[in-house]
Amino acid sequence: MSDNPAPASPPMSPEMAGSSPAMTGMADFGFRRVPRAEKAGMVRAVFESVAPKYDLMNDIMSLGVHRIWKRIFVGDLDPRPHRELLDLAGGTGDITFGWLGQGGGKSVLSDINAAMLEVGRDRALNKGLVGDVSFLVADAEKLPLPDRCVDRVSMAFGLRNCTDKDAVLAEARRVLKPGGRFLCLEFSKVQVAALRPLYDAWSFQALPRIGQMVAGDADSYQYLAESIRTFPDQDRLAGMMRSAGLSRVSVRNLSGGIAAIHAGWRL
Length: 267
Hints:
The structure is a single chain. With 267 residues, the protein is of the alpha/beta class. The chain has a single domain, classed as Rossmann fold (3-Layer(aba) Sandwich). Helices cover 45% and strands 21% of the residues. It contains 11 helices and 9 strands. It has helices at residues 14-17, 21-24, 36-50, 54-62, 65-77, 94-101, 114-127, 165-175, 196-215, 218-229, 234-243; strands at 26-29, 32-35, 85-88, 107-111, 133-137, 150-156, 176-187, 247-254, 259-265. The strands form 2 sheets. A 7-stranded mixed sheet has the order 5-4-3-6-7-9-8, sandwiched between helices. A two-stranded antiparallel sheet has the order 1-2. Helix 4 (54-62) runs antiparallel to helix 9 and helix 9 (196-215) runs antiparallel to helix 10 (218-229). The radius of gyration is 17 Å and the shape is globular. 43% of the residues are buried. Mean pLDDT is 90; it is low at 1-23.
């Protein structure tokens, strides 16, 4: 693995180039282009590798700031006892537990990766919240859920790992009840120019080394850093949400655009 900073202009993902993976037969996996059919398995392997240290590494990677972002995100979900949440790519359960902690109704914690959900299930047991959470191993592109069944759909730091992001957004809208809302928290394009060199150095030089030391896996954290750079920026993701049929789409930048919350309604 190279210690050099990321290329100034990484290869465009299908979403950035304006064509979906289904149209090209290829998908982005960090800065690499891989056959579309292989990406899900490759992403699954990444998260199986990092699952045991995922929460610790999140704290290290973001210097703890991800906890602030997630609190803001859960607040924007507007938890209420009568509302049910579908937490897509929910992994170890931070958003679900935040939702319940702020008074939200039952949550479906869903992830394509069973190893991540196992960690989430253990955390729910420790918190005494198993009765409020159901666990669903599912592909966010093809949810085994009926139309119009939940009040909120959340996705935190998961959309960039999906092969067909347009399909995920369409599924999110499909399962929302009329008047329901989809919110996505994701790394995005830094809006403060002075932050970019420091952010690139942290992402491409520090994180893989820390990943090797803490989780015994540098390559997975190299991929995660690259996947952020190939993810659609704020405006493009907002456009994709509108194309999926979501209305009143809004964008809220966090920490100078390092992360952003995108929100849209099903009317």
